[in-house]
Design goal:
The chain is mainly alpha-helical. It is built from ten helices and five strands, in the order ββααβββαααααααα.
Length: about 250
């Protein structure tokens, strides 16, 4: 089908932390054909009780525009290891992308601001530190679901700041415009250094505070995170933000 729209098929290496597209793909597919296939597959799975799509409203099942591949979503690498520089590697991927089993995604049906919050938590060093205690070769949903996620009060300024930073970091470009509008953040506002890196460091500090970590415990997380890594420059910046936010925790 010459001229037909084709979508990239993502594998784990197709994305990185806060990077929705590395340019390395598994394959590409005809968008119309894969949409039809996924629509039929979702309809079948909606009748299976252990499927995440069980109970999907008929209005969604009959509308291909509601397929997950039509909107931004959180994906993560399945193949990973506790000895890697990072174990939990996730990001917000743009619409029009299909994923292999090595790049599972999170089906999120709630407020997009809550999705941005989860993205911020999962992308942090403190969350990754917890994961490294369990992961051996694969980050399965069984392991992921067992990892602690701090809730935080809905009115907490720390929670609100995590949503803002994760939203701005995740909304990489105009492909994420709809998602960004629901979160309430601008598109492409944290693509340049040093602002981007500073936001990542601030997220580490905010997540540590939401977990209730003391300063000494946060230092321990960095000291024991990865053997041989030069953590001190990053820790220095994270502690700067930690101390600035600590009184509001």
């Amino acid at each position: 089908m010459s001229g037909a729209t084709r979508w990239p098929v993502y594998k784990g290496a197709s994305f990185n932390l806060w990077d929705p597209e590395t340019g390395e793909y598994y394959a590409s597919v005809n968008a119309e054909e894969i949409t039809r296939h996924l629509q039929e597959k979702r309809r079948r799975q909606s009748r299976t009780r252990n499927s995440v799509f069980f109970g999907t409203p008929e209005s969604d099942l009959s509308d291909p525009a509601t397929l997950r591949c039509q909107s931004a979503r959180i994906a993560f690498r399945d193949v990973t290891n506790a000895t890697n520089q990072r174990t939990v590697i996730c990001t917000l991927i743009p619409p029009g992308r299909v994923l292999t089993h090595q790049a599972p995604y999170i089906v999120f049906s709630g407020d997009r601001r809550e999705e941005a919050y989860l993205l911020g938590i999962m992308s942090s060093v403190p969350f990754d530190w917890f994961a490294r205690r369990t992961v051996e070769g694969h980050l399965t949903f069984g392991i992921l679901n067992s990892l602690p996620v701090p809730c935080g009060e809905s009115s907490s300024p720390l929670r609100g700041r995590v949503i803002e930073l994760a939203g701005r970091l995740g909304a990489h470009d105009e492909r994420f415009a709809d998602w960004a509008a629901e979160v309430g953040v601008p598109v492409g506002s944290l693509r340049e250094e040093p602002a981007r890196l500073d936001a990542i460091h601030e997220l580490d500090a905010l997540v540590a505070l939401l977990y209730g970590l003391t300063e000494s415990e946060l230092v321990h997380v960095f000291e024991t995170f990865h053997r041989g890594w030069d953590y001190e420059p990053r820790l220095h910046e994270v502690l700067r933000h930690y101390r600035r936010w600590e009184w509001r925790a």
